[in-house]
Amino acid sequence: MRLSQATGRRLIAAVPTLWLLLLFLIPFLIVFRISFSEVRLAIPPYTPLLAWHHGALHFEVHWSAYSFLFTDPMYVSSYLYSLKVAAVSTLCCLFIGYPMAYAIARSGPATRPLLLMLIVLPFWTSFLLRVYAWIGLLKNNGVINNVLLSLHLIDHPLALLQTDFAVYIGIVYSYLPFMILPLYANLEKHDETLLEAAADLGARPWRAFARITLPQSLPGIAAGSLLVFIPAVGEYVIPTLLGRPDQLMIGRVLSDEFFENRDWPVASAVAILILLLLIVPILLFQRVERRQLETEA
Amino acid sequence: MRTRGLFTRVALVLGLVFLYVPIISMIVFSFNNSRLVTVWDAARSPTLKWYGVLVHNEQILAAAWLSIRIAVVAASAAVVLGTLAGVALARFGAFRARLLLAGMVTAPIVMPEVITGLSLLLMFVALEQLIGWPKGTGAVTIALAHITFCMAYVTVVVQSRLAGFDESLEEAAMDLGARPLKVFFRITLPLILPAIASGWLLAFTLSWDDLVITQFVAGPGSSTLPMVVFSKVRFGVTPDVNALATILVLLVATGIAVSTVWMRYQQRRRERDLQLAAAANL
User: Fold this and answer.
1) Which of B53, B114, B183, B199 could form a cystine bridge with B157, CB 3.0-4.6 A?
2) pLDDT tens by residue, B92-119
3) Contact call for A133 and B25, based on CB within 8 A
4) Residue B46 C-alpha, separation from nearest chain A C-alpha, in angstroms
5) Highest CATH level, class, for B64-226
6) How far apart are CA B99 and CA B97, in angstroms?
7) Is this prediction's ipTM beyond 0.85?
């Protein structure tokens, strides 16, 4: 039997759509629903949404997970701390990544693929192992302290590991390629004759940069910053390996609530609150990406 | 003009140093023979001792084998699903579920991993209660989770490759009477094959590397390599992990070098063919 073209197309689109409905959207709705339950000692360890009471079906919505999160200062502080860490790391990535992307975009056609490969190569090696490498560099008798001590620049080892600084280093290090690549993709397309025209008209390089290059590269800045900021908010591995034990990030809080406290409703409520924070950045990112694809097409 | 060129070039060099110092230090210290892991013992180093320790570590070998199997399955399935989604988004115009598919397919890329992991696990638990499958968590649930986030990346790669070609070739084949399926296999598929190949490699790497989502959906007895490594390094530096990192870096670097050389060769051959064709026409 020959399928009509419309049926064939419907089938092709239906398979991935159904897959994502089942393994992305529905799981998320389940999290949403469990966040309005109360924890209980049972399997599964949360109260059902619908319950029989005195012969009538009740719709049971509990706010206890949320009110718990908002009244305990530990959760509020880790929420704000995650925001701060993600924002600072994104800015650092931007200030380090922009000049790098610019230099690659202006390099010769022969060296450009090599430079891009050097930026991407660390990404292909294990993320976990690259974060782990910083433990060896930052710890008290680690490489950085040993070098500084042997150069007599310091008398005592600096406390670098388990600090905010270590978390920033870890995030910037891990996410820098995600900042550089969209910036490069944008900067590479710039028309250099515009800068030459500005120079001919007497504009200083920095002024030409601020008036021409910078505004044109805003889509690249937006894409790169969102690609760093969004995952950084929920980062788990980097603060666990490098960060302070006394100040958790929100991703770690979620994981601890689930695995250590076995409190599924609170873990789900944390997930919903992270998403509330990220929904605007995520939608922005999708919009930037869609524009990108449309201009390519 | 020149000063800015200098500034950005210095920034590039420093940035690359920043990217490579940790990797190089892991490689160097994998040959260190000292009780203090991060203090170089010049008298007794270099040594291959940690490589010996590594290849005799049954737990790491078993975990690596499990990770490879899951990554192959996840990457292959993700390539199929991601190609279907990419073709649908790039070629089918506006269909009814387009916005739904487009929104869902890029979301896992930016979704924090803890949320993806938690939601998938809660779904598996609910599904088991509902229909009795999957029985607990393990390799199967890990693979299902990996397919889901990997297919997002494949979709983006395939879609942007398709966006780079207009539909005229496909339309021409249709006009000549080729059936849609034939058009796909004879025209579209060869065009997007490079994207599919790089999508597969990307998916393999992401699956092989994932820790956070895996920790949620893994069960007892199904520890992947990142899980074993994480539980080792959580409590400090261990030299055999340095050896493992060195082996992985070498494998990746070789793989990338080989594929770069191969792509250069292909490109040069194509250019030569074009020149020959042009010469023949003269």
Assistant:
1) B199
2) 877 778 888 988 888 888 889 999 999 9
3) yes
4) 17
5) mainly alpha
6) 6
7) yes
